[in-house]
Amino acid sequence: MPEEETFCLLVRLMNHYHLRDMFVQDMPGLLLHLYQFERLLEDLEPALYCHLHRRGVHPQLYATQWFLTLFAYRFPLQLVLRVHDLVLSEGLEAAVLKFGIVLMQKSTEKLLAMNDMAALTTFLKEKLFDVYIDDAPTANSLLESGFFGSSGGIDKEVYRADALVQDACAVKITAETLTTYKAEWELKVKTEKEREAEIETFRSANASLALKVRSLEERTEKSDAEHVQMASELVRTKVENEEIHDRNDSLEGQVAELRNLVERQPEEVEQRLKAEMDRIMARNLEVQNENRHLEEQMADMEKALVETKMGYAEVRRQLANQCIHRLTLLQIQAEHETLKQKWNDLRKALGP
For the CA atoms of the chain, what is the radius of gyration? Predict the structure, then answer.
């Protein structure tokens, strides 16, 4: 197929067959088709729907790629081409839903026999189309398989493609049913959006209330701190009052004692003053006598000092005279020695 025709086909699929709705933001088309498929499965195969629902196997786990790739991601090529033919013939929505429902119906017994979620998911993704394997292929089947399925060499089995198409066309899915499901989905989406908006409103209100609660808690903590501080100050004030009261009682006792003491004080002071005066007078006499005795001793000591100084001066005079006498004798001896030396020198000079 030329590039121009291929591009035109892509544009047709995206716009006319609404394939684009499955790839835009939030994938509204994909979510709608998955909901329609789930509702069809619930209405047409309720036992299988309940079985899968109880085990948490929802269409989002296995049917997402059916709608995004039109069964081309894992299905045999000879079946995929028939699916695409029906898509182009009847439309994307009805064709994919019919093929999905008929594959589920044909594998109902095998699926009901499985209880493990992983096994169910693997079977739905990889082995769902095995029910259409042709165990006794005819010449036409082999020819069809060779023409459509051997291009990549990946289809080792021959499939009953005609039977798949016939079974899919036999599934009765009316436009009214799909419209009803679509209306349910739109109502559900609207309800969810309103619920999300309400939840967001609640979150905003909750955040605002949380801030208010936090503010109130801070104010409460501050009030509690102030209350504790005031209680501490009150207790401290009470303790100080008790101490002041005790001190007041003690001071009152001391004042009473001082009052009694002051009342008895004049007589005691007079007696003490008289005794002290007598003691001072006696002591004054003693001091006067001691001063007189000391004055006499000082006079004697001054007399002795004068005599000592006079004796000292006499001694110094005598010592000075002795020193002069000795110096005179030394000078005479020196002169004598000098004269004696001169005499000896003269004798030597005059000869024998």
Answer: 69
pLDDT of residue 156: 64
Q: What gap in Å lies between CA 108 and CA 71, rounded to an integer?
A: 19
In the chain the first and final C-alpha atoms are separated, in Å, by 180
Summarised one tens digit per residue, pLDDT across range 289-325 is: 988 899 899 988 989 899 888 988 888 888 888 899 8
DSSP 147-200: HHS-SSS---S-B-HHHHHHHHHHS---HHHHHHHHHHHHHHHHHHHHHHHHHH
| CB-based contacts of 92, cutoff 8 Å, min separation 6 | 13, 17, 18, 19, 70
Angle at Cα 267 formed by Cα 261 and Cα 270, nearest 5°? 120
Helix (H, G, I), strand (E, B) or coil at 133: strand
pLDDT tier for residue 153 given thresholds of 50, 70 and 90: very low
Give the rounded percent of residues in the chain with a pLDDT score beyond 70: 93
Cα separation of 38 and 101, whole Å? 9
Euclidean distance between CA atoms 253 and 328, whole angstroms: 98
Contacts for 190-198: CB closer than 8 Å, 24+ residues apart? none
Give phi and psi for 154, each to the nearest 5.
-100, -20
Asked if residue 259 has pLDDT above 60, the reply is yes
How much of the chain, in percent, has pLDDT values that exceed 90? Answer: 17
Asked if 159 contacts 136 with a C-beta cutoff of 8 angstroms, the reply is: no
